[in-house]
Amino acid sequence: MPVRAVSSLTMDRAELSRLMQSVVEPYLLDGPRQYGRAEVTRKSGASAESNRRLWVSLGFAADPDGSAIEYTDADVAAARDFQSLDTLASADVRRQSAAVRTMGQSMARLAEWQVDLVVEEIANRISSITAQDPQADPEAVAREATEEVVSALQRLQAYAWRRHLAAALERALGVGAGESVREMAVGFADMVGYTRLTRHLIADELSELLETFEAVTTAAITANGGWVIKNVGDEVMFAAQTAVVGARIGLDIQRDAAAQTRRGESDATTMPELRVGLAYGEVLQRFGDLYGSTVNTAARLTGVARPGTVLIDDGAAIQLARDPEFAMRHLRSVHVRGIDRLRSHVLRRTEEPF
Predict the structure, then answer these.
(1) Which residues does residue 232 pair with via DSSP β-bridges, in sequence order?
(2) Contact (CB, 8 A) for 331 and 314
(3) What is d(CA 206, CA 200) in angstroms, rounded to the nearest whole number?
(4) Which end of the chain has fewer CB atoms at under 10 Å, N or C?
(5) 281 phi-psi bin (left φ>0, alpha ψ -120 to 50, beta other)
(6) Closest by alpha carbon to 247, among 336, 296, 333, 318?
(7) Per-residue pLDDT of the chain (354 residues; tens, 9 = 90+)
(8) Measured between alpha carbons, how far is residue 319 from residues 23, 112, 124, 245 in Å?
């Protein structure tokens, strides 16, 4: 059979999509779908209920027909790996499901973000290869491009994960491995008037605004030794091991956001002023997120902070009271949802006027 030529100039979108679908799924799944649920149970040595719970908790739809051929050798290996982690395999069902669900949700979000990047990069490589060799086998070209792109992305993800795991282990081991309740600083930063502002922005402008916000806040957080807990729209949640580090983060966020605003004053997507709230105390760490009254206090402080300021709670104020780097002005207590008397303090660096 003659090899059908494929050219980056003549390949239409439908043909490109067909080519990618023919090779991307088998490559990503490490082989063809060839097993039903019973075969996975037999090959993995794990119970059918355990395998189903793993599958669903990861976020994958389970076909009601247990004999449906939808599993690969990689799925069998995953079931075995799950059983090899004694801490999880011996845990109660709720803990198992929660841990796996958190992993699945994180990976799903990452995958959704990467789809456009992966498709565009594979398409570009197919075009580049076929431009050099118009007689190349289309499926071989697509397979080569897919392998190159996915392998590079996989290496980058593994690198980032290992570095983040090393940092998280260092923090955890520094206060006692296995402890889920710790004292730390928790803060929030959000954009003032975000909802009103978004009514006037097109999709590209909104994307640019969010990118600027995340870049400014992430840089201030990581440069000072803190870490991002999560970004949710117009708000970022961060944590630090000490109140001093948390205070530096909050003040740097405001400084850098103000500088960004000044640079883009004539731009429709200029970042608005920010509010920052910071609290220090005991928090519960669970699957990468933080919970407890300290977190709630930080969130409430953010809600009542004036634009361009950093508000801290009594816990943080006590930690910072003797530090010559900072100055505080005490405010009257206010009533907020869930807290009858919220005491707050405006934070500045010593050389900055109130």
Answers:
(1) 235
(2) no
(3) 9
(4) N
(5) left
(6) 318
(7) 333 444 443 456 677 777 777 787 888 888 889 999 999 999 999 888 888 888 888 898 877 787 889 899 999 999 999 889 888 777 788 888 888 898 998 999 899 989 889 888 988 988 898 889 888 888 888 889 889 999 999 999 999 999 999 988 888 776 555 558 899 999 999 999 888 888 888 888 888 889 899 999 999 999 999 999 999 889 999 999 999 999 999 999 999 999 887 765 556 557 889 999 999 999 998 888 899 999 999 999 999 999 999 999 999 999 999 999 999 999 988 777 777 788 899 999 998 877
(8) 58, 41, 54, 11
Give CB contacts under 8 A, 24+ apart, made by 218-223. 219/256, 220/249, 220/252, 220/253, 220/256, 221/249, 221/253, 223/252
Please state, in angstroms and rounded to a whole number, the distance separating the CA atoms of residues 23 and 20. 6
Query: Between β-strands 227-232 and 235-240, what pairing exists: parallel, antiparallel or unpaired?
Result: antiparallel
Instruction: Domain ranges for the chain, please list them.
Output: 13-173, 180-349
Distance CA 71, CA 279 (A): 47
Residue with tokens 């431009």: 131
Give the DSSP letter string of 10-79. T--HHHHHHHHHHHHHHHHTTS---B-HHHHHHHH-S-HHHHHHHHHHTTPPPPSSTT---B-HHHHHHH
Amino acid identity, position 222 = T
Contacts of 320 (CB under 8 A, 6+ apart): 243, 244, 247, 312, 326, 328, 347
Q: What is the phi/psi pair of residue 84, to 5°?
A: -75, -15
Distances (CA, A) of 148 to 31, 39, 337, 340: 17, 32, 53, 58
- State how far the Cα of 122 lies from the Cα of 20, in Å rounded to an integer: 8
Q: How far apart are CA 307 and CA 274, in angstroms?
A: 6
180-349: CATH architecture? 2-Layer Sandwich (3.30)
| pTM above threshold 0.90 | no
* Distance set, CA 297 to CA 154, 163, 302, 334 (Å): 39, 31, 9, 12
Q: Quick check: 300 and 237 in contact, CB under 8 A? A: no
Q: How far, in Å, CA of 354 to CA of 349, rounded?
A: 9
